[in-house]
User: Which sequence fits this backbone?
């Protein structure tokens, strides 16, 4: 991992022709008055302390990216209403949102980035390789729905060298990456097979927002959530749902995100009305529901869903005595040493130390923090061939700390961070819910 | 379920961090709540104790000799010389070989990127070879695209200050092909590759011309700074040092990282990303602070003792509008002139009243109300949220944070 | 009769620079002297409105007609200084229908194109408008950068052979045989470009004719010449917001009053204004109530203003004039028309004319009248060409806008640079050297700073008005020293330091009126950066000698040669 970052990256191959505003079938794009949010007032909060730039993992390795301050408050402040030119470098932002958690002054940085990226992508050629590739990556869930119908075949095809070559050359998807395998039974199928909720409760009821990944790829995480919450006496319902939108925001596919978000808000707000809280096992999903939806959309019920959305461990710590339960439990030797990485999206929600705090009190488990760097994959960022090397360079610190850790098991709440951790070290990566399941179920 | 600790410290800067570490000394459970990254990360990384008491223009050699001259109401008059020493001792323990200065009480004069020198009590080891009282010939090296630092100008400025050595400056192109708007962290990361250090040495070498030490802006590596500097020194065969500047400021980032490691190994629970927005109290004791967890209703964090280390006007521990100045969490008394036109002086570097805005502590560092009585029995304040000092003019900010943070932590653990 | 007369123009505001350009283009020899920077007086202290004439359409139709005429001219010749924002006259529930109709009628009578917008249409055009506004009249108001316009006029004058001397204060008017024959000026730092710390000099500039274009200061020049010019300076306060809350000029549709206009100006919005007669154009109170009133009153039109960040406030003095004996008491009633005072006719003093009154939008027309008058004195018949020939920077600007992503600059830096430089962009921005952004708030690169330094020497305030560097939200806290660094090595360290101190102090001056909330935090950050981190406030280079030997010279293991003496 001592890639020569100064010279080897090709900065030009993803250049898009921005003047080529090809009209496409995106007929659902609403007129611009509904679409553009004026975020200039957000620049009022900035006093140029530059904490955002210093915290940006991308700017540290890729000088094509001019940093969150430029792409955020500075760019917005320089805007006149008719200006639509967004610098291409907005596509280099990985949407890790570290700038949000750095800014001491409340500048809505990621909202500014998301909005600018949406505007940029709107002006992109819908026929460009980059657009097509980003659209595919952003809509992982749609493909997964198809792929998981024939999981073994899909897994075979996706791990095939020919497929990888094709992906790299035609789409710009990094051939170094292994496509995550589809489970032979999705979480949804399992949940249906077991007959839905096993407990019914008026006062302890949650709606589980599992996201696409734990449904199609890591159903064991989702199952762990159900079992843990049931162990605490909760009724767990699993509503129909779409992707949280996280990968869509990161790729500027705001219309795709809008459609997904509208569906989710519609479904979840109805459940909130009935007294359910929304619980996520993925910190990016909870971030989307809590922060990005209210920042970017205003469907009826958006705020209400945000106010009732929690990450799973957070929920149990706030509403149950999870700390007490764990300190009185122990697990057998299956998880001797856990190398824990806190996902960037956990930070803004105040969650990035919770697994450490909990598992330090749990007998039979040793947990080690692998540092506060970003994992570098940031959802879809590390999947792009032109970003792969940067992604690995960002992750270097995390990999080193993982290598230094005593065990060979990693731990994180975020599925794509888990992919990166596994990719860089070959460790098996668990989710905290799986550890809790072993302790309390 | 209630989140509960013995001590909650609000604010993750220098004062909050040492406060938490000091409170955790005897095994108390401590939670530090830091909304966002602290202002420490864009500070210079120097630890000033006292440079210019009472508006003086001549730097004091020994800050401990000058502490007595400070007016009542100055935070140092509450903690006293022993408090300052306690703070520095804790700091030295935390930072180990990352910092120098503990060998003497005297101030060091550290050259800045501006070409000024400034008095400070502790300085990062990476700046040690640059001291202005050292008479070795100096070469300053700047980089074309970094407009903050003009090395030839800074060298001339040092000579204008009458430093006891010859100083020259040169501007070179950074030996990696970075864009003109590359961030400082990008330079630092590039230098963590041996290849770039080698190229930098080759770039500087022809300009050495007898200089015995070389100064560059503070960008010699982020995570691996000591190794980068050592490598550059061995290639050049002379001492290398960094000049403070910023923001952005990597020495500030490095110090913040070191403090975080110390907090982690002391078992302090750290919550970040969530602001404290209010409190619950019974009579004159705070029972919990309310933490805004994003979209949710504020959640109480319980403790027996609380430390307020939220910073000053920059850190937003002190807030203002057209009509007044306040401490936003507990609404502690912040004395200030009624007319906002009395908050400043007309000279840019005047002794501005706003620079002294902050809460007023009693002799146990408890913020007092306008009658002089403690606002709460179990709330102490530390760092820039305290009023009464013009830290920019005095060069006293870090020292006040260390001394008051350490004392607040000690009083807190004694109170439990 | 002189063949090629030499004319001395006093005053480097829009009028003076406009006159200098006009005369130089007609082939006359011109020297312009200005006691401070260009725009130092009233020109640099206005809200930047390019009038459509709508504001005068009821009360002063002659002025209104001149405004719309000149509005059209300036869009053409000064396109890189003008942003056609459009303007709205907005009616609130408490504003009278009658006045609204009068305004509409007045605009039509003055040939000002108008459209009436319903409340909903007005809010579609300008989403920040209050929910309870009734309706609006849309007019072709615009925004204009007075600094850029004034500098462009001076540059054009220079290109036509004029000599422009800034920081050259008139200390005496030279009289011979009952006629004005020139002036004595004191150059702050020698003649030519200003360089700090260069000793001042005095010069007698002889001229065949003198034009006093000093606006509110005209009386002071008059006094030196022994004539009475009763200018009635009237102050107006303006508050600068950090961002543009609006992209359209917003006027309150009611009869004259304070705090009734918001102008989107470059990256900011400027709130204006007040109108109060003052005795001295330089010494008058700048008061809190004026700032507060601006925010409170204009929040009724644009509510977000109440919670928004202001970065500074400033005051300007209108050079109002009325002929002796008119006796108007309220300054708002004094005409905005301009007056040409030929002192030969008026006072029997040959060789000098003063121009007073008037307004920025019609500066060119005023300059043309004066230039005609001067030419008449010498029987010169050359035509005025200032209405047709674009100013430097405004040639082929439309073509250039298509190429503003060039110069290796990111958008919006390239866009903003081009908006400021106009057709000079390529000449200024093309460089083989790294061209980092020096002022991040306003997106000003090193190349543009260097170009401004070439024009104006070490005067960083002159660099500022040319580039907008240090005019953003940090008010120079993060970039003043970077700008100063650009002066080296052409200028020596002490000169650079003095220039930096001057700019920093100037930036502080206006910020004092915005010190609460975000800007107070910014001020403290700047104070800590320049004081704590840089020690600029107690810089040993400016104070007495420091005894370096007495301080810590390093730990015993530091590798330096000398052993430290123990404590």
Assistant:
């Amino acid at each position: 991992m001592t890639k020569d970052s100064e010279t080897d990256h090709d900065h030009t191959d993803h250049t898009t022709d921005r003047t080529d505003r090809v009209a496409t079938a995106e007929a659902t794009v609403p007129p611009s008055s509904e679409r553009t949010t004026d975020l200039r007032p957000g620049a009022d909060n900035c006093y140029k302390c530059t904490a955002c730039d210093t915290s940006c993992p991308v700017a540290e390795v890729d000088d094509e990216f001019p940093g969150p301050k430029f792409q955020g408050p500075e760019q917005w402040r320089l805007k006149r209403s008719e200006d639509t030119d967004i610098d291409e470098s907005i596509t280099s932002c990985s949407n890790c949102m570290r700038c949000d958690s750095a800014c001491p002054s409340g500048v809505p940085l990621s909202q500014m980035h998301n909005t600018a990226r949406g505007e940029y992508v709107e002006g992109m050629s819908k026929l460009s390789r980059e657009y097509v590739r980003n659209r595919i990556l952003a809509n992982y869930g749609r493909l997964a729905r198809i792929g998981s119908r024939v999981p073994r075949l899909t897994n075979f095809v996706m791990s095939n060298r020919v497929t990888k070559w094709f992906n790299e050359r035609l789409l710009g998807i990094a051939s170094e990456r292994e496509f995550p395998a589809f489970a032979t039974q999705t979480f949804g199928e399992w949940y249906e097979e077991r007959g839905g909720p096993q407990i019914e409760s008026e006062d302890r009821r949650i709606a589980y927002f599992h996201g696409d990944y734990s449904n199609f790829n890591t159903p064991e995480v989702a199952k762990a959530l159900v079992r843990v919450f049931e162990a605490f006496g909760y009724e767990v319902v699993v509503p129909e749902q779409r992707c949280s939108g996280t990968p869509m925001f990161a790729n500027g596919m705001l219309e795709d995100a809008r459609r997904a978000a509208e569906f989710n808000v519609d479904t979840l707000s109805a459940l909130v009305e009935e007294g359910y809280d929304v619980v996520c096992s993925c910190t990016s999903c909870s971030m989307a529901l809590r922060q990005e939806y209210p920042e970017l959309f205003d469907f009826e019920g958006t705020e209400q869903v945000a106010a009732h959305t929690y990450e799973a461990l957070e929920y149990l710590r706030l509403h149950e005595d999870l700390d007490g339960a764990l300190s009185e439990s122990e697990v057998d030797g299956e998880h001797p040493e856990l190398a824990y990485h806190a996902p960037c999206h956990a930070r803004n929600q105040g969650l990035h130390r919770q697994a450490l705090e909990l598992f330090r009190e749990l007998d039979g488990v040793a947990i080690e923090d692998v540092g506060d760097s970003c994992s570098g994959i940031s959802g879809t960022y590390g999947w792009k061939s032109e970003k792969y090397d940067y992604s690995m360079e960002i992750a270097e610190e995390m990999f080193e700390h993982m290598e230094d850790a005593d065990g060979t098991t990693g731990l994180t709440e975020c599925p794509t961070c888990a992919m990166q951790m596994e990719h860089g070290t070959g460790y098996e990566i668990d989710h905290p819910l799986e550890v809790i399941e072993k302790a309390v179920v | 379920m209630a989140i509960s600790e013995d001590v909650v410290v609000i604010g993750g800067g220098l004062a909050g961090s040492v406060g938490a570490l000091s409170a955790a000394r005897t095994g108390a459970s401590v939670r530090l709540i830091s909304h966002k990254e602290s202002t420490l990360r864009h500070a210079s990384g120097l630890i000033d104790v006292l440079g210019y008491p009472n508006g003086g223009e001549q730097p004091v050699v020994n800050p401990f000799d000058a502490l007595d001259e400070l007016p009542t109401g100055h935070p140092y008059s509450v903690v006293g010389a022993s408090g300052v020493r306690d703070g520095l001792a804790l700091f030295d323990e935390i930072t180990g070989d990352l910092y120098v200065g503990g060998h003497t009480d005297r101030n060091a004069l550290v050259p800045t990127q501006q070409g000024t020198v400034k008095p400070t009590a502790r300085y990062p080891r990476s700046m040690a070879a640059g001291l202005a009282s050292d008479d070795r010939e100096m070469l300053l090296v700047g980089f074309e695209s970094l407009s903050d630092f003009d090395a030839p100008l800074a060298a001339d400025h040092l000579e204008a200050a009458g430093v006891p050595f010859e100083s020259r400056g040169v501007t070179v192109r950074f030996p990696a092909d970075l864009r003109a708007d590359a961030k400082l962290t990008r330079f630092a990361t590039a230098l963590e590759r041996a290849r770039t250090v080698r190229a930098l040495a080759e770039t500087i070498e022809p300009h050495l011309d007898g200089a015995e030490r070389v100064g560059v802006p503070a960008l010699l590596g982020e995570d691996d700074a000591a190794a980068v500097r050592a490598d550059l020194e061995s290639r050049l065969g002379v001492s290398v040092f960094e000049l403070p500047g910023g923001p952005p400021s990597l020495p500030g980032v490095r110090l913040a990282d070191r403090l975080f490691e110390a907090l982690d190994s002391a078992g302090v629970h750290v919550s970040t990303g969530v602001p404290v927005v209010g409190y619950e109290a019974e009579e004159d004791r705070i029972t919990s602070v309310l933490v805004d967890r994003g979209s949710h209703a504020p959640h109480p964090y319980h403790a027996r003792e609380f430390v307020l280390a939220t910073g000053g006007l920059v850190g937003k521990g002190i807030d203002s509008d057209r009509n007044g100045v306040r401490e936003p969490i507990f609404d502690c008394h912040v004395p200030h002139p009624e007319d906002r036109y009395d908050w400043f002086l007309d000279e840019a570097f005047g002794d501005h009243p706003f620079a002294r805005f902050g809460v007023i502590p009693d002799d146990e560092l408890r913020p007092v109300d306008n009658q002089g009585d403690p606002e709460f029995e179990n709330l102490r304040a530390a760092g820039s949220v305290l009023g009464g000092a013009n830290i920019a003019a005095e060069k006293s900010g870090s020292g006040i944070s260390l001394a008051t943070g350490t004392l607040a932590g000690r009083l807190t653990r004694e109170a439990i | 009769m002189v063949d090629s007369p030499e004319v001395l123009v006093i005053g480097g505001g829009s009028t003076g620079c406009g006159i200098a350009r006009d005369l130089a283009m007609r082939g006359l020899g011109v020297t312009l002297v200005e006691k401070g920077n260009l725009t130092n007086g009233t020109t640099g202290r206005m809200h930047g409105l390019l009038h459509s004439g709508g504001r005068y359409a009821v009360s002063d139709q002659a002025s209104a007609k001149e405004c719309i005429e000149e509005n059209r001219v300036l869009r053409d010749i000064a396109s890189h200084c003008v942003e056609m924002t459009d303007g709205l006259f907005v009616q609130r529930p408490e504003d009278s229908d009658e006045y609204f109709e009068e305004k509409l009628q007045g605009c039509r009578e003055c040939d000002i194109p108008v459209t009436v917008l319903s409340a909903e249409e007005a809010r579609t055009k300008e989403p920040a408008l209050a929910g309870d506004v009734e309706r609006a009249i849309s007019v072709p108001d615009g925004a204009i950068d007075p600094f850029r316009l004034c500098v462009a006029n001076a540059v054009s004058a220079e290109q036509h052979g004029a000599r422009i001397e800034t920081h050259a204060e008139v200390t005496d008017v030279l009289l011979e045989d009952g006629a004005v024959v020139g002036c004595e000026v004191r150059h702050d730092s020698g003649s030519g470009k200003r360089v700090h710390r260069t000793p001042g000099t005095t010069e007698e500039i002889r001229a065949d004719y003198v034009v006093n274009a000093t606006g509110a200061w005209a009386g002071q020049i008059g006094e030196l010449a022994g004539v009475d010019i009763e200018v009635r300076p009237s102050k107006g306060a303006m508050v600068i917001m950090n961002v543009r809350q609006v992209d359209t000029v917003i006027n309150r549709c009611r009869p004259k009053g304070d705090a009734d206009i918001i102008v989107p100006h470059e990256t900011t919005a400027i709130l204006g204004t007040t109108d109060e007669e003052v005795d001295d154009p330089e010494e008058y109170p700048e008061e809190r109530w004026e700032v507060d009133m601006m925010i409170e009153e204009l929040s009724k039109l644009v509510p977000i203003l109440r919670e928004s960040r202001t970065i500074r406030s400033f005051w300007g003095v209108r050079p109002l004039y009325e002929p002796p004996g008119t006796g108007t008491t309220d300054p708002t009633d004094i005409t905005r028309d301009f007056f040409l005072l030929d002192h030969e006719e008026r006072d029997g003093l040959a060789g000098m004319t003063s121009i007073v009154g008037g307004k920025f939008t019609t500066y060119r027309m005023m300059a043309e009248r004066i230039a005609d008058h001067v030419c008449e004195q010498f029987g010169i018949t050359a035509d005025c060409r200032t209405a047709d020939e674009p100013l430097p920077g405004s040639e082929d600007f439309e073509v250039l806008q298509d190429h503003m992503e060039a110069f290796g600059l990111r958008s919006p830096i390239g866009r903003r640079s081009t908006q400021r430089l106009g057709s000079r962009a390529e000449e200024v921005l093309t460089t083989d050297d790294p061209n980092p952004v020096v002022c991040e708030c306003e997106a000003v690169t090193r190349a543009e700073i260097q170009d401004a330094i070439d024009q104006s020497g070490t005067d960083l305030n002159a660099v500022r008005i040319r580039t907008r560097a240090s005019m953003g939200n940090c008010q120079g806290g993060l970039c003043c020293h970077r700008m100063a660094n650009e002066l080296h090595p052409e200028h020596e360290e002490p000169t650079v330091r003095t220039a930096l101190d001057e700019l920093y102090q100037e930036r502080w001056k206006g910020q004092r009126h915005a010190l609460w909330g975000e800007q107070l935090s910014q001020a403290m950050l700047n104070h800590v950066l320049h004081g704590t981190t840089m020690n600029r406030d107690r810089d040993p280079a400016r104070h007495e000698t420091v005894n370096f030997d007495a301080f810590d010279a390093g730990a015993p293991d530091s590798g330096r040669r000398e052993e430290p003496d123990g404590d």
The first helix of chain B runs from residue 14 to 23. Chain B touches chain A through 50 residues (CB under 8 Å). The two ends of chain B are 23 Å apart (CA to CA).
